[in-house]
User: Fold these one by one.
Assistant:
Number 1:
Amino acid sequence: MSKKKIIYTRAEMLKLNKDILAKRGVDIESIAEISYQQQSKYSDQVSLNVCVESVEKILSLRDIFHHVQLACEIDRLAEEGLFQGPIQDIIEQDFGLFGVDETMGLDVSSLYGTIGQTNFGDIDVNKHGIVQKLNDAGKEEGICHTFLDDIVGAIAAAASTRVAQILNEDLASEDNGVERFSIFDI
Ligand code: MG
């Protein structure tokens, strides 16, 4: 029996993540806009471009790849009624006391440090941009966004934290008079 492919390159993982998110109605820009909204409050040096780049970098990482693929598939399976037992209705109805989706979100959001988790909390509670849209659409019959809204919010939170790290690295480099670091280092 030939083994099926389970190892993917960074470029492949980014593409597969983009594809599955697009299938679920989410594009990179809408995630980056949340990061931009969060970080532009603290600095006027933030560009949407660096937020988009951060989201793309995060989506190319193996651990995040596994989270995104799993989250999207759980929602799809719940929409199709393919789980058995009580968990089908719990996920499909996005039961408020079910927290496994938030656990996954917290894990992803801490990629660039603990601050990512507070950024995630802000997005989770205040439901910025696409997260609000996903949340609203998830209430419609036949649509389940129980895991998707958290994974999208968590990616935005991690990207937002990466942007903050980059800006601080820039500031520190200026202070030391050393050459500006490459953003690809972070
Ligand atoms: Mg959720």
Number 2:
Amino acid sequence: MATWKTLLLQDSASPLMEQLSFFHDHTLLILVIITVLVGQLMITLFFNKLSHRCLLEGQFIEIVWTILPAVTLIFIALPSLRLIYILDEVNNPLLTIKSIGHQWYWSYEYSDFKNIEFDSYMVPINSLKSYQFRLLDVDNRTVIPFETQIRILVTAMDVIHSWTVPSLGVKIDATPGRLNQISFSINRTGLFYGQCSEICGANHSFMPIVIESISPKYFMKWIFKVSET
Ligand code: CUA
């Protein structure tokens, strides 16, 4: 979960997010190098009085500062492209969950079992427990087993929403009339918080997502318990 002073990405809880973090660091490093180089050039340009009366063109330097940025961009584009294809990959999901965006809450369907359905509303501020996070906790969490390939099918009932959980590296639009899919697996136990990230109306900020990652064994127990009630 993001807390105060979380300036960069959250800690990854899935292989996808790990790769995204690596890509982020790689790109940030290139960015810092460019900033330092250009900054140094601009500062030296500012603090010297050199001039060259006869200078009209510099073919060589023109070639260098055209090719160099192009090569740099390739070094960003290729890993980025690789990541896009990795994120889109679906490898034999063991569990499929459907998530439906509404104004303004998410509802979930576990249709691999006895068609478990529930709504997941944000806990209002006046009924928050001391262990809950303001604007971020929900009444019914999305329970998911860890180390399991999950497929999430995402759609919406009314307007466009976006099912986004940063620590899992998942961000996918929920569009009415369409069914989007994304797959991921979680590395560890824990609570992973997310929010809608498509401006979807007045209460856009108040439709959080809470993933409760537990062991597959306890997940089965949870399924049995929920399907009985
Ligand atoms: Cu749903 Cu923003």
